[in-house]
């Protein structure tokens, strides 16, 4: 009886050469990526140096968009607004401290107005 060796055929395919070729391609891909990265960084810095200086208006722009912004919960915003208005209508407070202007509760303002209007 003829016994054939077990395993794969070693004469037709050299596994070591295939693995080395794959590793070589992987190393080459990494080197190409590094070269491209540094080339793009050099081009970017050259482009930035060639650009004119930003106008003063562009540097004075705010970091966030101006009001009004998108309302996420308009019902809550309206409730808070109404609460602040009611608070101002029924409390004392300064409008302009230097000029001596104050706001008074609406009921008190109506009493004062009625007192001034009556003879």
Describe this structure in words.
The structure is a single chain. The protein is mostly helical. The chain has four helices and two strands. A two-stranded antiparallel sheet has the order 1-2. Strand 1 and strand 2 form a beta hairpin. The termini are far apart. 0% of the residues are buried.
Annotation keywords:
single chain; mainly alpha; 4 helices; two-stranded antiparallel ribbon; 57% helix
So what's the overall shape? elongated
* Span of the ends, CA to CA: 138 Å
Helix content: 55-70%
* Alpha-carbon Rg, integer: 40 Å
Lateral arrangement of strands in the main beta sheet: 1-2
Structural class: mainly alpha
- Total helix count? 4
Estimate the strand proportion. 5-15%
Report the mean per-residue pLDDT as an integer: 87
- What is the multimeric organization of the chains shown? single chain
Find the count of extended strands (DSSP E, 2+ residues). Answer: 2
């Amino acid at each position: 009886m003829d016994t054939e060796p077990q395993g794969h055929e070693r004469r037709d395919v050299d596994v070591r050469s295939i693995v080395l070729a794959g590793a070589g391609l992987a190393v080459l891909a990494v080197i190409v990526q590094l070269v491209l990265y540094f080339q793009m960084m050099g081009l970017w810095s050259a482009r930035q140096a060639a650009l004119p200086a930003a106008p003063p208006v562009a540097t004075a722009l705010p970091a966030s968009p101006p009001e009004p912004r998108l309302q996420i919960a308009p019902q809550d915003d309206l409730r808070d607004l109404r609460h602040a208005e009611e608070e101002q209508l029924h409390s004392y407070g300064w409008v302009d401290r230097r000029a001596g202007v104050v706001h008074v509760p609406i009921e008190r303002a109506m009493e004062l107005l009625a007192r001034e209007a009556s003879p």
